[in-house]
Design brief:
The structure is a homotetramer.
Chain A: E1 2-5, H1 11-23, E2 27-32, E3 37-42, H2 50-54, E4 59-63, E5 83-85, E6 88-90, E7 96-100, H3 107-120, E8 124-126, H4 144-156, E9 161-164, H5 171-176, E10 181-184, H6 192-200, E11 205-208, H7 215-227, E12 233-237, H8 255-262, E13 267-269, H9 271-275, H10 281-291, E14 295-299, H11 317-333
Parallel strand pairs in A: 7-8, 7-14, 8-9, 9-10, 10-11, 11-12, 12-13, 13-14
Antiparallel strand pairs in A: 1-3, 1-4, 2-3, 5-6
Helix pairs in contact in A: 3-4, 3-11, 6-7, 10-11
């Protein structure tokens, strides 16, 4: 850590910082510049608490030199991690498109959805049984009954399932239904107790980015899961919150190359929640794959106009099929397959 | 709800919208303008699902006419709600400054904190036993042991306590320790299962605004609590996330008059987390009270340089005392007391 | 325009709104709902001043039904506009990659740049003679001398030139040097006097998006140019400002399909300023083309480490060449050429 | 400047950085940590171009140690600067409230406005003759005719005038009409040629913050003016752009204590543009003064419902008068006068 002292900091204040660094077990290197004194803390700086240093008298600013994340960092694990989902690889050369409806509604809807997802060439299926909704007065998901419908429909077509876990008390039920990939939603990215719990199991986890989470906070949230022993983590960018009102969120496509540089774990994109409108989905999906994403989480509904929530952002089966063709072309340009 | 059709929408598309509105039990009013047809849905529009309407062919745009929140809305409850915290009123003429350290550390630190909080003229005390931390490798709070220390120190000085609940499984423990005000933190503002649980008890709840939550989402989060039966809700603005990097968050002081207009519930401000630096706290506290806030949540530590987290933003006892004097003056200008 | 009255608005207030609408020459349609009265203004609503309506007593909210932009809107001009730059088409099936250094530095650097730009297969060249710099103490561009160097180097290789105009008083000089495309930078997107001036000539104009401009404001800025008679406008997305600090800006790739829907004018992307780092440029460039952009504005420097500004974001000649190959592949998937 | 090298940077790369620092005339201090090598550049670091350093092979990150602004920095000029506006002090103990309409409309409106501004106890008057409007189809201001009306009305009541300059070519006209304070609007905060021109005269300049300008960029924009010789600069915070849609902008009240710490120049607030609604203005005005602002720029119109633009945010004369009474009380608490 580099600590910059205020202009005119006293020798006593400089000594105070050096002493505090020593208490944490690190060495100091004091460098007196023309306008500022700069102190370097040498050793394992993760032991240092930046806020405590910043609070010392005479300190103007400080900067971490080493990244605060470890297990998820590519720095310590150079090769790509390929997460194995019941035999389906995510994070390798093959790109995975995870399709399915926003919400589980009825057995018929799920059966049809699974059929179309399979027909489009997808190998994994998504669907929400527990729905985080802004209003307490709107449909909150079918719950456990929905998990059951989803499991049955997906099994018929041999599709591993991805579904969101909102409440830590539901984890056992998720394990009973053998949910193949547990999704942590954007509103729970920093629900640390939930992260710790999914860190204790070994099911793959899709960690969606918080609505206004920085890349660093997102990596640290994954570190919570990884620190528990579960390294099967998949990052999912789903649009960030900005000033723009024309679309729901701004898909942060830059996050793809940046995460691929910072972490060895797979990175996927949710183009449906990002734009919030079905007509934007093909363009955003193509952009995501072109930027290097390892997969997509795409909403498809057998009949979007009848969907119970977020109807506006679901593709119909035909649209998903056409999208897959385009994505195949782009994947090929990058030397990948879908 | 007002639905605007695309330029050139067909009669069939217009009929489709009218039919869907009827399915929800509302009436329609079709108005054909020079460039667009506009459809009004008349009746209880909270029954309508906006996304489903938006997904219908030919629809360009739609707008709610009625606010989506009910119980928390001032529209249906004109007088201010005064939340009673063991006899201390919050939301009335008297302003409440809730002081105390960021984290519970030791019995001595809590005892000293309680003494200074009381001496400064505060009637309520804050302190964190469970800490939401960005990194899994930093201090996570003293947990249940911390609750115990806090309860004892505060009881000695007759101060009701405010502390954060992060995990729904801890609620019973909070009730055992008779926590007087349960705080829902910024990262959990949309942890809907947690909101539902605190909605089932009758303890006052401080609901902090999410890092990038809109006023409307925040009111809807409170509606989750209120819908369960608990109407003892206190809104707490703590700074929002923006592009500015000089300070941690931007205190959104405009939220104060806006919430006072939209809801009958009390509104307080956390100037410590907003700015992130102790030297900003007095200016932000004065601004908050001048803008009409019903109270403050201020960090004070008997020895800020030794604090175990967020040291940088805590006032020392002397500073808190001086701040109280200034705030008294401003309260008086507004015809209020502290 | 739709005007929603407050709950409990008086008949007098409703009449006041109806009267004001009449003053602007429009008709009214008053619709009394269960909780709110809604007034529709029928006629050419662009004549109405929304702020004046909102200020009337009893008005809660209002919404435009018709888009405020006209000349640039696809609604009134269905086919794509292809801007002709000295015979090079921009906005048609062929994608244009505009390459070149951030700043004009020396005749040798410009000559080399032109050579490499041409060799990579680009048909247009960029370069800054007037540089908008945050600090008054850093290099501000070579000025008119730079225009001269640029013109000569580009002419040698038959490349039309793109360069930024910052000061309205320099327009004549730009015309003297026959600058082929005038760029309006992000900081000047709402420099309305500058927009009006470039609206009076017939040179193609690249209008960069303001750092935090909404799509609607951007379209309206273009409308300023178009209203003067110059319809040769090219939109350029260059990243927006958000809370993220890892990269300079967030490339808003969603703006591509949205603009292609809202306007008939070409849309290009500047991946260099968006990410701010050369290693991000290929991924962002591929994403932009995959999303449907009509071109790119890419920084290339013969020797990035020696560049006088923004060195960090420039590709070297080899990297530009390799990028062109990848982009060709993606263009082909979309049925386009480069 | 502190330069952090990548993990595994070679000796050759380290030497490259040291060599480049030397070229700029500074000394280096190389410090080899356990995971990273850190290089300190010692000397006048304003000579270093950060982007060029960042572009060197092996560099991961760099940080300025010294602030990039000089003339406006409090570090080099400890006492508050009091700007003298025809004998009225701004930045001293006395707080100045600058009142007046958004736009100059008619001689009668300006005469009435001046009368009410004076009657409320304000000593300076504002009004716009040139209006930056989002749409080219709405009222653009009365122009020079408006300047004339304003000058005459204000002179009658002995009020110095504040008005916005948008176009550099209008500066001579502003000087002819002896405009007392020139306002640079939010959209022109980084119109560097305009800043340079007002830096060459000695009229006081109000520099509004750009819609999404950081504190640092804002100080650097002021530095452009100051570098030309004009040190009569007044900062004006007017709300920043965020994700919130309930109000137009978020008043950044934290900017007040931060600017007072960073610069010796006066800081005022525009509560009218920040909130965008007249009913928010009193709360925001009180907050601004309580936070330590040196003044306000408040919209007041003799008849807000008839105003030609931004009617919705103007106070009426009675409201301005009442506001002044409240502000006097708050100023007194802080030991200031109004």
């Amino acid at each position: 850590m580099i600590i910059v002292m205020e202009n005119g900091a006293s020798e006593e204040q400089i000594d105070g910082v050096v002493k505090k660094i020593k208490e944490f077990g690190l060495e100091s290197n004091v460098s007196r510049g023309t306008e500022r004194t700069v102190i370097g803390a040498i050793g394992d700086e993760r032991k240092l608490d930046q806020e405590m240093i910043d609070a010392l008298p005479g300190v103007e600013n400080s900067m971490h030199v080493v990244k605060p994340y470890k297990i998820v960092a590519r720095e310590w694990h150079k090769e790509n991690t390929v997460v194995n989902i019941k035999g389906i690889p995510l994070g390798g050369n093959q790109i995975q498109v995870i399709g399915g409806p926003c919400s589980v509604e009825t057995p018929e809807q799920m059966e049809l959805s699974a059929k179309y997802v399979k027909a489009a060439g997808c190998r994994l299926m998504r669907g929400g049984a527990f729905k985080p909704r802004t209003s307490p007065y709107t449909f909150q998901g079918k719950g456990v009954e929905g998990l059951d419908m989803f499991r049955k429909a997906a099994d018929k077509y041999g599709l591993p399932i991805v579904t969101e876990l909102m409440d830590v008390r539901m984890l056992d039920t998720f394990l009973e239904y053998d949910v193949d990939v547990i999704q942590i939603g954007t509103r729970n990215m920093q629900n640390f107790d939930l992260l710790k719990e999914v860190g204790r199991i070994n099911k793959p986890v899709i960690l969606k980015r918080g609505m206004s989470a920085t890349i660093s906070e997102w990596l640290m949230a994954a570190e919570y899961i990884a620190a528990g022993g579960n390294h099967n983590i998949i990052f999912c960018e789903r649009g960030i919150r900005t000033f723009e009102t024309y679309y729901r969120n701004v898909l942060d496509v830059t996050a793809v190359p940046v995460l691929k540089k910072e972490t060895h774990l797979p990175v996927i994109i949710d183009p449906s929640h990002a734009g919030g409108k079905a007509w934007m989905v093909p363009a955003l999906s193509r952009a995501a794959i072109a930027a290097g994403a390892d997969g997509l989480l795409v909403e498809m509904h057998p009949n979007p106009c009848e969907a119970w929530c977020d109807a506006d952002q679901a593709l119909n089966p035909e649209e998903l099929k056409n999208l897959m063709v385009e994505l195949k072309g782009i994947a090929a340009v990058l030397g990948r397959s879908i």
